Amino acid sequence: MKTDRNISDTTLDIRFEYSGEQKSVTLSQLEEGARTFLEIYGNAQFCGKEFADIIQQGNGQSKWENLLAATGFEGYPKDFFKTVLSAIAGGEGQTLALNGVTLPHILLVAFLEQVIPGHGYVSVRSTEQLISLTNHNIPETDRDDIQKVIEKYPVRLSRHTIRQMMVSRDVAYQYLPFVEELDNIGHTNTWIGQFHDGLLEQMYQNRVIFLLNMSCPVYCRFCFRKHKDSRNEKNPTPKAVMKAVDHVRSSPSIKEIVITGGDPFLNRKNMEAAIDGLKEVDHVQTLRLATRSIAYYPDLFLEKEAEYLKYIKQKSLELNRIGKRIEVATHFIHPDEVSPESLDIISDLVKHGIAVYIQTPFLSDCNDTGPELVRLFSLLRGAGAELHYIYIPCSPIHGNSIYWKPLSDGIDIALHLRAHLSDRVIPRICTATPIGKMDWFSSGWAVEKVADQDYFVWIRTPYTPEYFKAFAPLANSLTNIRVNAEGTIDIQYMAKIGNDDYLVGNRPEKTAPVNPEALPEEVARLRTALTETDQTAGSVVDTGVDGISRLHETRVNIHPRAGEAEFAYIAKDPRITDVRVTGEALDHLYEIQRIAQRLASIPHVNALRVCSMKLATDPRAFTRARINFLGEVNALSVVTPLRLEIETWFVLVSDLTPDHTVITRRLNSKGITIYANVPLLGGVNDNDTRIHDLAYTLRSTGIEFHHLYVAGLPVQISWNAAHPIDSYDVVDIATKVRREGSGREIPRYIIATPLGEVDYGLTSTMIRKGDAVDVELRCYDETYYTSLAPEFQFPEGTAISETGHPVVPMPGLIKTNDFVVS
Ligand code: SF4
After folding, report:
1. Ligand 1 atom nearest to 263, measured from its CA
2. Domain final position from 115, 132, 162
3. What is the rounded CA–CA span in Å between residue 793 and residue 541?
4. If you measure from the C-alpha of residue 44 to the centroid of ligand 1, how many angstroms do you get, rounded to a whole number?
5. Is position 241 within any domain?
6. Structural domain of residue 99, as residue ranges?
7. Hey, which residues does 813 pair with through a beta bridge?
8. Long-range CB contacts (< 8 A, 24+ apart) of 192-198?
9. What is its EC number (predicted)?
């Protein structure tokens, strides 16, 4: 029953049912919090379209009144809050609907910020303390076991996380201890690298890990370092950090340092010693600072007037001046973790030229169906983040088994992402084996089950015994590895395969002839073709609007002079997140600005992509004035962002000059990302060394290697008809790039078709037909296209596979064996 039509201020008392805690908060405080939140974040981006339609556009007051009316509390804000807060306090805040209106969890977190404010984090030592802090309902029968869990695998929570957990089951699932952690299935200990000396670990020739701090402000339950002995290891001292710096100084092959822990940001002294020490080592190119605090403890960066953020930005400038860079790596798992604070941190870093890249462990029953990842990655992308990896499965150690999924489930997530997510934010799907990472169906695959071991699979990796000789002879003495016929290492990996079709065996020997070397004038002609013809302009459906082509569910191409018909098409489909403007960007700066202004009123578009071949051929054409102009267009922001990205194309490493580094740095310092596509061309760049060199140089230059097109572009269809790409070489390329490069250099291996792009091996199947190859597009079906254009009909020449996916011929690609991947 409604109790008041409140005008004057009153106090609400809220009693949390399981903790017994009592909190008081004034109505005016709650209303002010609600109005402020709704004014700034009450939109489709944060609250979902349905909720945004209910509260409509307007200021905070009008949205608040609309919410009260829609939920049946018009004029009764106190009753609204009593109902909502009682539900949360009673442990029912996970899906809260009033009068059919589902309240977004991010709004509920904003309410809780008024009721249980506070920063910092708390170490939890007992079940009682856990209940008291979190209001978590732990049955009496489980309490002793939960106490054992807490003693075995320490628990720590931030105030920020506690508020999120009260209203999101998917956040609670990551941080709350659970009884099954006592199960003993899985490995006992964390794998700590091939080479391990104090705070330094080394798994790869070109990069090392510095473990600067052993603890974290929050402990994820799926952590691979979750054992108490890991948590209780003593932190290194700055002196030990300098010893590790000395090791790097005497190892010229080390180019990148991953600075991690625990959370290294919790140990400022060590962080400073590492950055300042490594800054002086000539051959070090990149420092990758890893922290999950952006997601679960943003206060760390924002407190004291964002002092820590300012420190990182200052250090980044210092490193930039001497040709080095800082990047920040972080984890996000579920969209419920994304807060305005975390987006603020990401966009602030990116605007200052610091790339932020995201890694996502794949957790059973949390982010394993697809749509939640699409929403997560879209949110993060708008703030400027790059999506790097999805790790499948999560680490197979004791206490983690509820999070495990069969490998095939993780691999299949690629099908959903390729169909429904922007190509710019599709992470690489990889598995971190004990000897290093592999990418599914390009640099590695599952060979077979390990005999008599139900829970182990042989995984083909890109690594060789020689690779480890230089720094970690230990790898050669492992008993769980074998060297296969092609000379790479297979390793036993603890996981279920799921779908046995993904056990594909060993790769036979290469039999195809090598393409003859293209002449310089032929290469020049191919470069000209890239400049003159837009390689990815073809529409997959008829849009009914002349000036717009639909490249994907999320992406359209428009002309620089696009008009109202094009904008109307974009505005009416909320799935469109990316607008790519054709033509040379530098010839259309005014039009680009006009398009950006127009798109600003279409909130579901969060990326404006422009093309520039001049960036490849004449980078100095990007004068300071033009860069400043583009910087003004780039709207990296927390609310309704419109991120600017520049696309360019390269063929060979010789296309890149020092000028590219200078110009890229200037664009990056405006928060503008440059990404490069590369077409694989027979006799030009179709071998592993050339693509590895190109990948390495693109990364050194600061350009993101986006797609390596294997086949299907116009330039490939004409040239590769006589100089075909052997699918075998694609695996060789992926193997070398993964093994010898940085993980940040790896492109997506893409086949372009008239019906859309697919990932080599991962979302496509190659079908050998005599000398020709057909490609099955396993991520698309007829309903996908009819959802874009109801009248859609498959073009002539398209077959449909037994499983309902289109199959198209792929000229310029050959397959010389029946092995599924190469
Ligand atoms: S942030 Fe990383 S290291 Fe820390 S508990 Fe979580 S997974 Fe483990």
Report:
1. 4
2. 115
3. 9
4. 31
5. no
6. 11-115
7. 725
8. 193/472, 194/435, 194/468, 194/471, 194/472, 194/474, 194/475, 195/471, 195/472, 195/474, 197/244, 197/247, 198/236, 198/240, 198/243, 198/244
9. 5.4.3.2
pLDDT of residue 578: 97
Instruction: Report pLDDT digits (tens) over 713-768.
Output: 999 999 999 999 999 999 999 999 999 999 999 999 999 999 999 999 999 999 99
Name the closest-CA residue to atom 7, ligand 1: 223
Determine contact, residues 94/171, Cβ cutoff 8 Å: no
Would the CB of 221 count as within 6 Å of ligand 1?
A: no
In a domain, residue 153? The reply is no
Residue 583, domain CATH = 3.20.20.70
User: CA torsion 764→770→772→778, rounded to 10°?
Assistant: -10
Atom 8 of ligand 1: nearest residue by CA position: 223
- Residue 212 Cβ inside 6 Å of ligand 1? The answer reads no
Distance CA 55, CA 66 (A): 5
Distance 789 CA to ligand 1 centre (A): 45
For β-strands 325-331 and 704-711, DSSP reports them as unpaired
Nearest-CA residue for atom 6 of ligand 1? 220
Whole-number pLDDT of residue 646: 98
**Which residue has the CA at smallest separation from atom 5 of ligand 1?**
219
Per the listing, tokens 């996908």 go with 784
Compute the distance between CA of residue 93 and CA of residue 403 in angstroms, rounded to an integer: 23
Which strands, in side-by-side order, build the sheet including 772-777?
764-769, 772-777, 806-809, 799-800
Q: Can you tell me the distance from the alpha carbon of 662 to that of 659, in angstroms, rounded to the nearest whole number? A: 5
Torsion from C-alpha of 473, 479, 481, 487, nearest 10 degrees: 60
Nearest CA to ligand 1 atom 1: 292
Q: What is the total count of domains within the chain?
A: 2
Top mutation candidate among 155, 160, 181, 219 for ligand 1, by most atoms within 8 Å of CB: 219
CA–centroid distance, residue 112 to ligand 1 (Å): 25
pLDDT at 475: 55
Crossing angle of helices 564-571 and 589-599, in 10° steps, is 40
The atom of ligand 1 lying closest to the CA of 218 is 5
Q: DSSP states of 288-320 as a string?
A: EEE-SHHHH-THHHHHHHHHHHHHHHHHHHHHH
What pLDDT shows up at residue 1?
Answer: 46
**Residue 521 placed within a domain:** no
Which is nearest to 326 in space by CA: 399, 276, 292?
276
Task: Quickly tell me which residue has 């609310």 as its tokens.
Answer: 639
Ligand 1 within 6 A of CB of 219? yes
Residue 612 lies in a domain: yes
751 burial (CB, 10 Å; 0-12 / 13-18 / 19+) is buried
Last residue of a domain, one of 585, 618, 649: 649
pLDDT < 50 positions in the chain:
1, 6
78 lines ligand 1 (CB under 6 A): no
**In this structure, what are the phi and psi dihedrals at residue 578, rounded to the nearest 5 degrees?**
-120, 130
The pLDDT, as a whole number, for residue 263 is 95
Token readout for 540 is 């997959």
